[in-house]
Design brief:
- The chain is α+β, with helices and mostly antiparallel strands.
- It has one domain: 3-Layer(aba) Sandwich (Rossmann fold), CATH 3.40.50.
- The chain has a four-stranded antiparallel sheet, covered by helices on one side.
- The protein binds adenosine-5'-triphosphate (ATP) and magnesium ion.
Length: 103
Amino acid sequence: MNTMTEPIIAIDRVCHYFGKGNLRKQILFDITTRIDPGEVVIMTGPSGSGKTTLLTLIGALRSTQEGSMRVFGSELRQASEASLVALRRNIGYIFRPIICSSP
Ligand SMILES: Nc1ncnc2c1ncn2[C@@H]1O[C@H](COP(=O)(O)OP(=O)(O)OP(=O)(O)O)[C@@H](O)[C@H]1O
Ligand SMILES: [Mg+2]
C-alpha cells in the first residue's frame, strides 16, 4: 500500500451506536482503516458484525456519529445534508438479492 497516495476512503476511530437510552447498543468499535485508489477490498465478518452499517456510513447513507470518515477528501462527520447528497451522487451500489429458501 502506498502511504503517499491520498486515500479514497480514510476512516479514523469510527464508532456507531443504534438505539437510545437503555437500548443504546454499540455496533462499531474504533474502526480505523484506509482504502487507496484502485484497491479492491472485500470485507468479511459474521452476520451482525456491522459490515452494512460501515458501508452505509462510507456511502453517506447515514451520519457518522463518532470519529472521522473522509470519502473523496470530504469529512462526512457533521457534514451538511446537501454535501452528503452530493457525495452519494458519486457512489454506486450493487445490492445483493436476498434469497430465502424453505427446507
Ligand atoms: N437500523 C438499525 N437499528 C437498530 N439496529 C440495527 C440497525 N441496523 C443494524 N442494526 C444492528 O446492528 C448490528 C450490525 O448490523 P449490520 O446489518 O451492520 O451487520 P452485517 O455485518 O451487515 O450483517 P449481515 O452479514 O447479516 O448482512 C446488528 O446487531 C443489527 O441488528
Ligand atoms: Mg449486511
